[in-house]
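Annotators were shown the component list below and the corresponding predicted structure, then asked to write short factual statements about the assembly.
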Amino acid sequence: MTFPEPKSDATVATKPAKWSIDHAAQYYNVTGWGAGFFSINEKGHMVVHPMGPGGPTIDVMDVVEDIQERRLGFPCVVRFQDVLRARVKSINETFGRAIAELGYGGRYYGVFPIKVNQMREVVEEVLDAGAPYHYGLEAGSKGELLIVLAMNTDPEAITVCNGYKDEEFLRLALLGRKLGRKIVVVIEKLSELPHLLRLSDEMQVEPMIGLRVKLTTKGTGKWEGSSGDFAKFGLTVPELIDAVRILKEKGRESCARLLHFHVGSQLTEIRVVKDAVNEGARVYAKLRKMGLPIDYFDMGGGLGVDYVGSHSAGFSSSMNYTLEEYVSDVVYNVQRICKDEEVPEPNIVSESGRAITAHHACVLMNVFGSIEIGSPEEIALASQPRPDEPDVVREMREIVDSLSPRNKAEAYHDAAAKKEEALQMFKLGILGLEERALVETLFWKLCHGLVALNRGKKRLPRDTRDLGDKIADQYMANFSLFQSAPDHWAFDQLFPVVPLHRLGEAPTRDCTIVDITCDSDGKIEQFIEGEGVDETLSLHPLRNGEPYFIGLFMTGAYQDVMGDMHNLFGRVNEVHVFVDDEDPEDFYIEEVIPGDTVKDVLASVQYDTPDLARRVKGALDQRVKEGVLRPKEGVQLQDFYESVMRGYTYLSGL
Ligand SMILES: *Cc1c(COP(=O)(O)O)cnc(C)c1O
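Structure shown to annotators:
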């Protein structure tokens, strides 16, 4: 009888013979989601090609070392600013090429919606890289408008104002017109229009008006609510007709310059993009024919990002089209409908946020421990029969030893019943704690054996089907999911997780990842595995005294600006990396932005930190007075309390 031993470092040694860096690239699907920006080098380290394939290469472990030398601490957000630039360039040039090839009559004027990532360095980089193309910005609130008014100074680039607007918002936009900027106020609800016209009369400036239409075409997936008749924003078709009437009554048709729609973020299917553009282009053509001189056709955001790298619409974190297809379908269809309707071809505007920023940032973190169900050491110990062991332990051992491919279900049920029996005996006081532990460990041994037998088999006994996920190791990573990847928690959005080193070595542990918040939702249990998705991820066995680093990739869109302070884990340390050909490691860190200190996050929930320190000092002084503490010790403890306050909110090591 052959008993499959539970996977342990010893048995695993047979597997790596076949493992190579290529296997790692395939297993973690780095080529699939990496979009040419990521790969694995011959050392088995993750590397970044910030300018795309063929360009300079940065070893992520060199960045890790640099962060360590600066005593910054993990987790740490790393922004590859050149990746951001490459994305801006790529979307603009792809539109430029399609427009030239099709002989399209308008230009492309993209805008970056800053809600996706309002970090000043991100916005500055996007504007700088986009300057040759007159790339603009989009704002959705007063706060964002204050930013874009100051930042977008190019008189040819446009600024789009979305979102509900009050009088201050409208006045701010008109201030921008006074500065000679192309600021378009998009009317999201009809009542905004008369207010805008009144204020522009009062301020004596000509507004640029955009009209947002609710299309019937719906996005699919997580963000479909942005479109359809009951969407939050935009005008229904009858309201659109009303808007035309209002503009004509006031003799202000000439101010209507832009038609806007947005059917949702992360559009996974190209069909939806085409449907929306077709419907939008018809609306544009009809408005043109009603006498509105609209010359910007703004198709909103929604360009997807293939987080999974499977090139399929089957996952909401993937997509079934490329940037090239997206762009050529848009330009082609707008052109076709304009020809058909005999109206001029408008400038095309898109508001891609996710697709511009997702790739440029990642979160690097250390794994500081693991929770194993039935560790190899415990199992080895429990496997030795003892002369005086109770029957229930011996019987459990016999069940475990009898496991074979033919009796899997039976053995599992017998073992589960035996475990229950042992528990009952324990409750009655007739089984000791150590014996109960032996029974449980033997049960885990059976589970590991079953998982090994099930591996690669299609037909599995029902009860044992997801046993593998249940007994997977939990790797404890130094980060907060709620701060660094809130969309994984909120929408099950997938982010690639990849070890930063040891990729030439076979990853032999099946794992899930847990964060350091006290929330049981703070974990990752959905991973990208090859071109599919799985509940566990294979990672390397942890080695004593050796740090193990993993990266959470593609977090540049939405994540770090939406993260919350669950358990008072605050903003994460951050470094901005630039390519430098002169440097032996091809990069330099231009900027270091320390994350929140404990003091910062305490202040954000209204604690006065000097007051807290005073209270603890009072309590310590009292103990000194009582003679329980030596004065010197009291001072040391007080210093320590205050130094933790000044420190980072995450784990700094033992
Ligand atoms: C959120 C949003 C965007 C950005 O969408 P992405 O999918 O990130 O490109 C663009 N326009 C509007 C109106 C939005 O609400």
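Statements collected:
1. Residues 113, 115-116, 162, 262, 265-266, 300-303, 351-355 surround pyridoxal-5'-phosphate (CB under 6 Å).
2. Residues 347 and 590 are 37 Å apart (CA to CA).
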